[in-house]
Amino acid sequence: MIVVVKEERRVRTVDKPTALTYERFYAVAYVNNPYRKPLIGWMEDLDTMKIDDLREWYRDWYTPNNATLVVVGYVHAEEVFSLAKKHFGSLKTVDVPQLKPRREVEQIGLKRVAVKAPASVPFVVMGYKVPVLATTDDTEEVYALELLSGLLDGGNSSRFSKNLVRVSQIATSINASYSLYSLHDSLFSISAIPSNGTSIEALETAIIDQIKALQEEPPSEDELARIKAQVVASSVFEQDSSFYQAMKIGIMETVGLGWETKEEYVDRINAVNAEQVQQVARKYFVEDQLTVAELIPQSLETQASAASGATAGAAHAH
């Protein structure tokens, strides 16, 4: 079993340079937030893991009173409850350990990490510490951040796509990501691949210039209306998928927001004004809350040489 998990880690992370960069990005960005640790664990964890460790973890956490079952589609509630009782009713509950409240310690300066791995092109990830619905009383800020994500990266008309990919051609691809339904404080992340001949430093500067422009002047009413329409449409189209419906309901219930939060999304997005978008950009997109991870492409020969050198050095130390 552990061998299978280790192979999964190699395939999903170790052998994928962008995934490897993201992993180190989160490890550096956070100090005590659980998101700093890979979901599947570090390879060193897997190397020392025993079958009894897995059994203990399963016994402690995989229990009916710590699970959320979501069923969507053309079903009858009575039948669903009957089937759930038939198939899961005999499972015993377990006293689940009570998790302590976890709040990330304040970041007090810019963080950087370089990742050297075999890759064909460089890659950069930038992330700012931001709140989510489960961690803040000011929910208006969260929906403003969600709209800000669409403004920067909401299709061909978004600022990143228009200004950095098509006009200046400083990036071949660029994405913004924010999850308002996380359990803990999260990161508003921006990932990008520079165009041929463009340095990571120049790309970073261009991205920050786009953010500064938004901090200095709020979006126009026309731009805001267009982005709202796109963000709302994307949310509505997700309802065509039973999987996404179930996933969102399950996440909201699991993190303690309640499924009803899903029904508020469209109204809350439409209520955001241009000044609120500008305010969250000013408040959270500051250097002291920024973490940057850069992928520095290495040839396979360079990587192999470095690995053999490290092995020889370790042997000499012993």
Describe this structure in words.
It contains 13 helices and 5 strands. By secondary structure, the chain is of the alpha+beta class. Helix 6 (139-152) packs across helix 12, helix 8 (200-216) packs across helix 12 and helix 9 runs antiparallel to helix 11 (261-270). It starts with a helix and ends with a helix. Helix content is 52%, strand content 13%.
Layout of strands and helices, then pairs:
Elements: H1 2-14, H2 17-29, H3 43-48, H4 51-61, H5 77-88, E1 111-118, E2 123-130, H6 139-152, H7 159-167, E3 171-177, E4 186-194, H8 200-216, H9 221-238, H10 242-254, H11 261-270, H12 274-284, E5 290-298, H13 300-317
Parallel strand pairs: 1-5
Antiparallel strand pairs: 2-4, 2-5, 3-4
Helix pairs in contact: 6-12, 8-12, 9-11
Low-confidence stretches: none
- Sheet with the most strands: spatial strand order: 1-5-2-4-3
> Helicity range of the residues?
40-55%
Q: Please report the total strand number as a whole number.
A: 5
Q: What do the pLDDT scores average to?
A: 91
Computed Rg: 22 Å
Our count of helices gives 13
What portion of the residues fall into strands of 2 or more residues?
5-15%
Largest sheet: 5 strands, mixed
Which sequence of SSEs, written as H and E, runs from N to C?
HHHHHEEHHEEHHHHHEH
Distance between the termini: 32 Å
Which structural class should the secondary elements be placed in? Answer: alpha+beta
TL;DR?
By secondary structure, the chain is of the alpha+beta class. It is 52% helix and 13% strand.
Label this structure with key terms.
5 strands, 13% strand, 318 residues, alpha+beta
